Amino acid sequence: MQKVQVENNDIFYIRNGSGTPIVFLHGYPQSHYCWRDQIKTFSEQYDVIAPDWIGWGESERKLGVDLSYWAEVKRFENFIFQMKIERGFHLVAHDYGAFLSLGLFQKNKLNILSLTLSNSRCHKTFLPSYKRLVDFQVFLSGLTWLRKLVSYLPWYSLHRNVLKKYISHGSFDDFELERYIGWIKRSQTDRLWMIEYYAAYRTSPPHDIDNCLNNISCPIQVIWGEGDEFLSREIALDINRRKPEASLEFIEDGGHYVMETKPDEFNQTLKSFITKVELKN
């Protein structure tokens, strides 16, 4: 992996292939590895860039960093500037990564050739049962005077219990799940970073994110894995209503981690969309 420093934080990333760049941004609790099938396929024809976002995978978990939504959007924008992309890029993002990607359209400083969003809260929020779980973690993490004590709670077990069902779904195996969340149990500092992450997180939509959706002028696609236990498919349908020109593709039994559960269908859908965009340009 390569490393770049963004706002004094070390961010590790994969960069393979040549051609028009495609930036893949993962979500919770993953890393660039969740795009392993996409990296292999698309790096044959494109310049594929896939970071481990700050705090996840191999990237740095430094305490005291501003992890609020717009600070994260700005950090992602700075990461892309550091990639020295000259002629624009396709952006493919999932979950938290897609949530951040919408924020890039507040000011439209980047030359984004197309946007693909996959199973993300985007401009909305989670299904009630999962929202309650996230809000509970946000509440605990906001108890700043008890933060060290809170770090001793079974964070690893909590996240593993939420995610272990996806092993039987075929999204990832036990080893791969450990690759995603094993760091939570390594040290108190790592858990304190997670607590700071949740302390800064809000399940309510950020101010101005609706305008970001309205500001999208590049071709847009939504690839949605059916059977998502965290998110309503109404999010994808609402994007399609508000952006009628958007391509909307549902993948049966794809679930939340559709690019891992159904990589062939995901890749075919994504490749068809990007090819059409490039032919028009």
Helical residues, percent:
40-55%
Terminal Cα separation, in Å?
32 Å
> Which structural class do the helices and strands define?
alpha/beta
> How is the largest sheet built, in terms of strand order?
1-2-4-3-5-6-7-8
Condensed summary:
This protein has 281 residues and is α/β, with parallel strands linked by helices. The chain has helices at residues 36-42, 69-82, 96-103, 128-141, 147-150, 155-163, 165-168, 174-181, 188-200, 209-215, 234-242, 258-261, 263-280; strands at residues 2-6, 9-16, 21-25, 47-51, 89-94, 112-118, 220-225, 247-251. The chain is 42% helix and 17% strand.
Question: Can you describe what's shown?
Answer:
The chain is of the alpha/beta class and 281 residues long. The protein has helices at 36-42, 69-82, 96-103, 128-141, 147-150, 155-163, 165-168, 174-181, 188-200, 209-215, 234-242, 258-261, 263-280, and strands at residues 2-6, 9-16, 21-25, 47-51, 89-94, 112-118, 220-225, 247-251. A hairpin with a 2-residue loop joins strand 1 and strand 2. Helix 1 (36-42) crosses helix 13. It is globular. The two termini are 32 Å apart. The model has no long low-confidence stretch (mean pLDDT 96).
What's the structural blueprint in terms of helices and strands?
Blueprint: E1 2-6, E2 9-16, E3 21-25, H1 36-42, E4 47-51, H2 69-82, E5 89-94, H3 96-103, E6 112-118, H4 128-141, H5 147-150, H6 155-163, H7 165-168, H8 174-181, H9 188-200, H10 209-215, E7 220-225, H11 234-242, E8 247-251, H12 258-261, H13 263-280
Parallel strand pairs: 3-4, 3-5, 5-6, 6-7, 7-8
Antiparallel strand pairs: 1-2, 2-4
